[in-house]
Write a structure and sequence with these properties.
The chain has 983 residues and is mostly helical. The protein is built from 43 helices and eight strands. The two termini are 45 Å apart.
Amino acid sequence: MTTSRERRPSTGGLALKPPDPQAPAPMRTLARRLRELLAEAGFTGVRDIAATCGLGRSTVSDALSGSRAPTWTTVAALLRVGGAAASTRWQRAVEEAKESEREWKSARRGRSDGTGAAALGITAAARETADAGPGTFSVRAPYGELPGRVRGRDELLAALERDVTEGSDRIQVLYGLGGCGKTTVALRLARFAHGLGHHVFWISGASRDRLSTGMRQLARELGVSEHEIDAAWSGRSSATDLVWRALDGAERPWLLVVDNLDEQSVASTVDGMVGDGAGWIRASAAGLTAVTSRIGNPALWGGAAACRPVDTLAPEDGAAVLIDLAGEAGSEADARRLAEQLGGLPLALRLAGSFLARARRGIGLLTAGGDDGPVRDFAGYLRELERLGAELLDRGERSDGLPDERRLRRLVGRTWEMSLDLLAGQGIPEARPLMRLLSCFGRAPFPMDLLRTALEKDPELLPGDAARCETAIEALVDLSLLGVEDIPLAFGHGTESVVVLTCLTAHPLVLETNALQIRNAPERTRARLWRSASVIATLLAWFTTGPETWKIWQLLVPHVRAGLRQVPDAPEEALVAFLRAGMSARNYAVGSNNHALMRELASALSERAPALPEGHPTRLAARRISYDQWDDGDRSAEAQQVYQAYVRHYGADDERTVSARQAWARALRRAGRVAEAEQELRAMAEAARQLFQPKPVLIIADLVHVLVKLGSTDEAAAWAGELPAVPGGPEDTLDGPVAHHAAHALDAAGLLTGAETYYRAILFRLEEAAEEGSPLYRDMTGHLADNLARQDRADEAVDLLGGLLDWYRANTATATNRIGTLVRLAEKRSHLQLASDQPERAEAGLRDLLTEEFAELDPADASVIRLRVLLVDVLLVQNRCTDAERMLDEAERDLAEADGSPGVPRWVLPLWRARCRCAHGSCDQAVVIYDEVLAAVAGHRELAASIGAEADECRRALADPAPPPAPILTAPAPAPPPPPSDA
């Protein structure tokens, strides 16, 4: 089903009544131009237009019939769905229509009065009041919109309340992103002032008309005569000076709130600025003036203003808002997760909470929830939000009873479009396409250098040149739609190695709603935008992936990830650009040894690449990457198919084909078909020899591993000996992935000193790039420790393991599988310390971990039990059997109270009990326990054989009066070891 925006242009035009022939020409002209635009866009009626742009039907009908002059907000919404830019020309037409409407109404009132009214002495003001009916315009604060409790604003409100009670000569400007709660803060301040007996005036600054009308009513409230008001509002005297004379001379202290003053010219004099003290916004000793605005640039508000930011809410405050609105709709933890997903934006929190509150009355029973049923709680709403995105939020707002402008401000999908309409009307149309472009990427900081380079590469990337784009960025920052953040990146250890990267930031929901606008745009608009995005994606694909760029890649990966997810299948050039960027990001993941990111990107590439034609080079490359990461089954047939496709497209000797063949060999090896893998790898290595090509390090390294697996250790060592030495010259560079594989191959072949040289070279390069926190650095450090231990250099290995333990203990948030890795490293270090006759150091290290790092864990947790068992081992080596049994008693008690632990087999503690008894000389008791353990592990042949050997030693000790030998502690750990890398 196509949307109204995608229909073919209608030849018959809009089905509307003709414009009012009595209306002034500017009103009719504006209505005609809007009709033509919307008819050309394919719309056929008011219902269709209203549903697409989110306006009321009567509002659309009035705008297109010429019976009423529409507001700029209405016209901007119609222009947007019609595919036209909101320019100053359109804004001028709206202003002319408004002015002509005022004159038209005034003339009609004069004609209807006749001479009889004048003869009766009825004044013009009285006639205006009589014609208008009862007055409903109020300058009273809308206290009914104030929530029961304002969350997360205590510090800000305390400062504002001091200004009310103590007085202030500064205008208080509450600024922030649309939807961040500025009006709520102002309302809370108004209620506080009202409670003190102050006179409170609340005036909308959304348009010049509403501000003028509100100030006129304020003058009446302060007792200004109708004669003075008529003179000021007819232009015979200054209306702004009249109002402020009245405010300065007011007997009661007052609070004046001008809400939603986003267009500053609305409040300034003809030739002045809002902050010059001559317009509607001024400071006074008689009271406090507060303004809410999306504009936060202090220079624009003048020296008499104090600009106070109103930011998003912290997760705990956001959760409280949700609970206040929705009541018992789930746990506090679920509310917090939802608040974090919504970025703490008060508008989004209110919409989500209101939706859940209304769910109890029937909303969403038929239209939300998908396969999981109706959305009734925080967790369900979060799932639905992940499925539908920002469009779900606006379902929480009722559509009845509010004027268009106020209703649009309450909708996440519309409120920020109003800001972009405002900038377009100010002659900055570049702001909207820039926001749309940024929304094609991730929710992370976006490097300005990337945007600058893209503009240099393609000057037509955005409307306008670089200077115009800078103007748009500044305007977006002023409206809080964008932020500017300087991110320091350390590429070395000296201060001169720190580079500051300037980035653009935006609230995630701002970007998400812009992305939604892209999805709903006409096909031609979408294609043009994604072609622009592909220019940036191409830059990402060219980015190098050495250690010196990893910190930058950490900023870029979220943008690649989001682009891969969002880019449409057409235009093809955009999809190809983002797939290639994904491959570069995967190369970074491979180089930095980030296995989780490797798998994620490989999955994304395999999901998106099939949209390309069969045989497309990018599709082939993505397919090879995807199976190259599979390790959960036999994928060798698929790998062979891809290799054969490369042969057909590029020939057998092409470098890409050789890489695909090597990937096939790896798939064979993972599938257990080691002999076939050896055949393919040997053939590739021999071919390189015959062609006198550079040594294929990666192929030789894979061949070495296969030969070791087959038991051909001598041949494996011979092939490993052909691996090149570590580059040592100052001009030489070390290829990280190549060196990584070469080191492992040398290690596997038993050439330990050669492997050590490679490990140290890799670590040195990472240290030069200040990448000691990278997964590769930790992984290489661990392998170097193992290598040194095999060379009987236990002390050096212990020091390296101690450094790794310190890193994991310090990095509680960033380390993956932290607890499991701590246990694994502690076990290695403990065994090495025991082998070096350092049991006291081993015991101290284990006890420190138990008391400092594991104290918060359940005593029956498998990791805690495993450390305790390690400590039992250390105590037995010191012949402290009583202490060891006491440790086992505590562990057994904790397990019993927890009714066991899934990660601790029931035979583990009895096995160590038997070892304790044997070491203590109670071999008769130990043998009985050993038999019970053997019965429990009877189904595990190798394990039973190992434990049986221990039991036999104990039995022989029963017949031998000599002291029993210490048991050979060869049983496996009580919990499966974690993977070799934490990445």
